[in-house]
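Need residues for this backbone.
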């Protein structure tokens, strides 16, 4: 019994230790990733299904880890937030994507809008507004070409500060989208108080679409509300034709998802952009 429990403890300590040191490794790797240029941006198009044109492109971060291969944001963004590295990463993404946007504008293949995700922590920093404006100016990209995607949690946490920052950003023409709409702490009362341009219907609602049933759903409510507040609405995570058709019937015509395209590396998205300009 004694042995067992010691063995059990040793095993436990070892497991904890390795988890702990893995976390430490990842933390050190993450601190170096920016300077080592291990981050890359993938781009996923948003389509207007009435004319099949690209109306926007969302930037999605990838980390090409030297040993672990490609890592997705859900596996390192929370850590980046914890160790206070997120705002530097956000600025890197903003810089890389607006530089890219400028190149596309010069080549005559730019999408109308570029969407960039902000972390909940970004709006806590007082410098985010100035840094965003400066980045746009540095690359000569007008504010109305940028859409910032934020979540409701962020707004709910500090509505006064959020209002202040978002208003300043929108004075520069920058569009604000509410990401994962309907999943967080929704408060109808911020919708008309804040300068919001777009609601993104969360993937979980799209996944639950059951075309054979005709009952009203959360999505119906979101679409009606968006139109009532004069907001654009984008459905994300559209994977099937049935989902697309159902959304179209409900008057939602802007969509993003694997049915249309996965997030693509820059060369591949450029091919799509050229084709989109060509028709
Ligand atoms: P999100 O903003 O809700 O992005 C949508 C996620 O759904 C992306 O995952 C995308 O690749 C995936 N997706 C797109 N279409 C489909 C589909 O049809 N089916 C399915 N099953 N999935 C689809 P990804 O790229 O792994 O990003 C995950 C999350 O990480 C994002 O969720 C966003 O919150 C965050 N993120 C991504 N890039 C950045 C960034 O640059 N900065 C910050 N702060 N967060 C980021
Ligand atoms: Ca997003
Ligand atoms: Ca989303
Ligand atoms: Ca999400």
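Answer:
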């Amino acid at each position: 019994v004694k042995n067992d429990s010691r063995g059990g403890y040793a095993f436990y300590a070892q497991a904890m230790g390795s988890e702990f040191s893995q976390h430490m490794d990842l933390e050190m790797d993450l601190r170096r990733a920016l300077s080592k240029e291990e981050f890359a941006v993938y781009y996923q198009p948003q389509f207007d299904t009435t004319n099949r044109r690209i109306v926007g492109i969302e930037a999605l971060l990838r980390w090409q880890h030297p040993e672990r291969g490609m890592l997705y944001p859900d596996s390192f963004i929370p850590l980046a937030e914890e160790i206070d590295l997120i705002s530097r990463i956000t600025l890197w993404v903003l810089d890389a994507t607006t530089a890219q946007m400028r190149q596309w504008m010069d080549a005559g293949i730019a999408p109308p809008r570029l969407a960039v995700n902000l972390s909940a922590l970004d709006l806590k920093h007082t410098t985010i507004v100035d840094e965003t404006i400066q980045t746009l100016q540095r690359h000569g990209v007008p504010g109305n070409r940028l859409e910032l995607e934020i979540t409701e949690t962020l707004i709910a946490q500090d509505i006064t500060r959020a209002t202040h920052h978002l208003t300043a950003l929108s004075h520069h023409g920058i569009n604000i989208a509410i990401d994962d709409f309907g999943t967080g702490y929704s408060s109808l009362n911020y919708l008309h108080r804040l300068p919001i341009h777009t609601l993104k219907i969360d993937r979980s609602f799209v996944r639950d679409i059951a075309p054979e049933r005709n009952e009203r759903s959360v999505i119906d409510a979101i679409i009606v509300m968006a139109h009532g507040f004069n907001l654009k609405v984008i459905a994300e995570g559209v994977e099937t034709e049935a989902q697309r058709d159902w959304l179209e019937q409900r008057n939602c015509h802007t969509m993003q998802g694997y049915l249309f395209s996965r997030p693509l590396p820059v060369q591949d998205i450029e091919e799509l952009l050229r084709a989109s300009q060509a028709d």
